[in-house]
Amino acid sequence: MYVAVKGGEKAIENAHAWLAEERRGDTDIADLSIAQIREQLSLAVNRVMAEGSLYDPDLAALAIKQARGDLIEAIFLIRAYRTTLPRFGYSNPVKTGDMACDRRVSATFKDAPGGQVLGPTFDYTHRLLDFKLAADGEVAPAPEGDARQEPTPHITSFLKGEGVIQDEPLSEDAPGDLTREPMEFPSNRPLRLQALTRGDEGFVLGMAYSTQRGYARNHAFVGELRIGKVAVEMDIPELGFAIEIGEVELTECETVNQFQGSKTEPPQFTRGYGLVFGQSERKAISMALVDRALRWKELGEDNLGAAAQDEEFVLSHADNIQATGFLEHIKLPHYVDFQSELELVRKLRREAEERITPKEAAE
Amino acid sequence: MTEQMKSNGITRQEWMGLLARAPEDAMMPLWDRVADRPSFKWLRSPEIGGVMVRGRAGAIGAPFNLGEMTVTRCSLALEDGTVGHGYVQGRSKPKAEAAALIDALMQTEAADRLTELVITPLKTQMQGKRKARAAKAAATKVEFFTLVRGED
């Protein structure tokens, strides 16, 4: 028998009212402003922008506040918001070679032009809790040096000059857009890069780590890691020329990987690429490693059956909003589904008992 | 109208880019110094939307879609028919309106005044901020030195 049930409106309303109260916490403690979150939890804001796939620091900060600091919930809010925005167009590809670099390091060349610029990094800190931060927020201004005016060249451009690294052929083909058409397999590199840059940081990190531990090993060097602002340019039809419509902070990672050479190619290094909104270097390095692992087919490498080589596996599970949506829906009412399963189990047990009972009676 | 159009040594492309990137709290106080605002009619009232930002594989290869950014745009016409467009980053309709008005006025005789009151100070402020970050980055540049070994 199927019985439709309704109810719970009052309970839901009261639950949301309590949620709002819990979100605010103890009212004797000052309310957290959006600007405070944006300025002081900026790496959380960056992650929400990268995985929410929408660059807007104030919106990401609001989402973090609304989500009580649950970043996946905040990403969900941003994804929902972005679907309401009319799409004005597509930008011209950003020129990361013109980036105003806050940070730029290379693990392959010590003396690269532009130098090793550490920027505001956690690297080389001792990871000891700083109890001064609990006492007050005073900081001394950071020292200044001679500001670099000229753009910083990409490290891979030096290797390319020597011909020892695989080329990235320039093209102007319009890439597929997975916010417009659902992902289909086999995919292609532009779609993979889009899926990875908005993919869950933890998932992409885990996949990248698996390649380092030997599953589809491709021995990556961080050829270059750079963080900074780049201008975003778009063609404006009513003007007839392109203008800058803003600027975004990006993290870019180019890996240089081993390659044996093939029948058609002389031995040369290959590349993995990561580009992520905000200061997100763990994610950018992870993205570059996974990008490289997924390129096995085009580079004529063996399929070792590793998870990081399986684009359908990686791309279908990288999105934390899809994942959490499907995962969390199982906690919502499934009374009818379960009732039918319960009936079935009872019936099977009854039948099993009936098969056993006559036998026992006969003995 | 082309990007070659110049007014007081700055191209239209440059001032539109400057207005698009400028933080609202830097631009609006400067705009508030412009006393006599012209009347205008909307060709397109301010609307908030998204632009899909693209990157290139390996920085130089095939384009891919990186993610969207918020943009607010509007278009207006002054009484003499001069058209101004505002395309600004973020979700501020007042900022988009100000950008469109400044764009229109920069094409008129008011260009000198606008350059003096808004464009030049805004450009100076933004260059100053950019330079300050570059100076801090420069201070974190590693100076390598080689330790003298005792074998010789």
Number of distinct helices of chain A: 13
Q: Which parts of chain B are unreliable, with pLDDT below 50 for 5 consecutive residues or more? A: none
Largest sheet of chain A: 4 strands, antiparallel
Going by helix content, strand content and strand pairing, the class of chain B is alpha+beta
Quote the distance from N terminus to C terminus of chain B. 72 Å
Question: Uncertain spans of chain A, ≥5 residues at pLDDT below 50?
Answer: none
Q: Count the strands of chain B?
A: 5
Which range does the strand content of chain B fall in?
A: 25-35%
**Strand order in the largest sheet of chain B:** 3-4-5
Radius of gyration of chain A: 26 Å
Helix content of chain B: 25-40%
Tell me what you see in this structure:
The complex is a heterodimer of chains A (363) and B (152). Chain A has a four-stranded antiparallel β-sheet. The longest helix of chain A is centred in the last third of the chain and has 28 residues. The mean pLDDT of chain A is 93. Chain A has two domains: 73 residues, no CATH class; 191 residues, no CATH class. Chain A contains 13 helices and six strands. Chain A is an alpha+beta fold. In chain A, helix 3 crosses helix 5 and helix 4 crosses helix 5. Chain B is α+β, with helices and mostly antiparallel strands and 152 residues long. The model of chain B has no long low-confidence stretch (mean pLDDT 93). Chain B contains four helices and five strands. Chain B has one domain. In chain B, the strands form two sheets. A three-stranded antiparallel β-sheet of chain B has the order 3-4-5. A two-stranded antiparallel ribbon of chain B has the order 1-2. The chains are: A alpha+beta (363), B alpha+beta (152). The interface between A and B is large, with 85 and 55 residues.
